[in-house]
Amino acid sequence: MKTSLFGASKYPLSEVIGVVNVAKITYLITRKGAERLAYKIPTKYSYAIHSWLLSFLNK
């Protein structure tokens, strides 16, 4: 995990397991835990995140 100038965490794609929505909060699931991405993200954006990430995780 790295921290950029703006304080955002960055994870190598190999560490990412998936994305999940729980109680209107979108989480990024990694091998070391979970990171909250957004609260009440619109469905179309949530679907876009899941669809984009899925293409990398299935390889």
Chain-wise SSE layout:
Elements: E1 2-3, E2 9-10, E3 16-22, E4 25-30, E5 33-39, H1 43-57
Main traits of this protein?
1 helix, globular, 59 residues, alpha+beta, two-stranded antiparallel ribbon, 5 strands
- Rg from C-alpha positions? 12 Å
Roughly how many Å apart are the termini? 22 Å
Q: By helix and strand content, what is the structural category?
A: alpha+beta
Overall body shape: globular
Sheet with most strands: 3 strands, antiparallel
- The topology string of helices and strands comes to EEEEEH
Please bin the fraction of helical residues.
25-40%
| Biggest sheet: strand arrangement | 3-4-5
**Number of strand segments:** 5
Average pLDDT reading: 75
Strand content: 35-45%
**Unreliably modeled segments:** none
Number of H- or I-type helical stretches: 1
